[in-house]
Prior knowledge:
CATH topology of the domain at 252-340: Nucleotidyltransferase, domain 5
Helix content: 25-40%
Largest sheet: 5 strands, mixed
Radius of gyration: 38 Å
Strand content: 5-15%
CATH class of the domain at 252-340: Alpha Beta
Number of helices: 7
Structural class: alpha/beta
Order of helices and strands: HHEEHHHEEEHEEH
Distance between the termini: 73 Å
Amino acid sequence: KEDEYKKVISKKEDEYKKVISKKEDEYKKVISKKEDEIRDLVRRMEYMARKLWGRMSEKRQTPDDPRQLKLDFEGMDLTDEEKRQIEEATKKVVESRKVKVKEHEKQLPVRKKLPENLRRVEEHIYPEGYIGHEGEWILFEATETSEHLEITAPDAYVRVTIRHKAMRKADNKIVTAPVKSEPLAKSYAGASVLTELTIGKYTDHLPFYRQIEMYKRLGIELKLPTIEAWFHGIADLMRPMYYRLQEYMLQLDYLQSDESTVPVINNEKHRTVKGYMWLIRAVMEPLVLFHYHEGSRGKEVALEFFKDFKGALGVDGYGVYDLLDTVMITGSSPVVRSII
């Protein structure tokens, strides 16, 4: 009988294990489903948080937060004067939240005058039959004048530098005029061309290939490698100004810093990789500095760049800035707003 009992018990244990295993599978499916629902709800909450307090917060009116403390005067013994003051203050708060549009009378459109500093080219138009028969007409001094804005295509020309030779009679010495200093040595690019290329790329956002097409319309063939070589030469010429700007900004009392991704072409991997560029902005003066160090945003870059800075630095939550011992770290308002 003991063996029979063991067999019965073993059989029941197997049945219980099967039931428990089946229940565990069902519970796991339910838990997995609930976890997916929770993740979806969390994503929705994060989206609404960004919509209310993130970058899109300026586009809508955020509701009052019930967690904020409110001044409740109910149940207090207030005089009539105090009640009146509370009502006036409440009205002012409500009015301050409304968008005010300044009333104005509708005015007829007035054509804006063309700038006075522009060169004027006059064209004179005479009554029909006047030219060639001036003796038969009396020309009045009063005229009717109108102005129209015109523009001519860029005028490209070749500046030919001719260096003359001369012999001084006193000692019969032959002297040749010195070579004029040019921005780029052994290059036919003049200063005006280099300036236009740089302004076109960084101010007008015109890539070099578009500027090449623009020069083609003037009958000038420029190759992309040639322009890129000019650009590197321009960068070398501006390097002292860059270092002077960096030196000046690091002497200021307050700066803001952030890192931004920038696509970088890796010649070894033959593809585009993600690099980082450091952006440093002066708050009290309209100065901006871009710092690029092999595409890195590591702590070594920050420690080296800000090693001589002694002021306050407005940054986001990037932990590298906490390693700067001589700098007072402050948070930026957009980051604080998004966290809240």
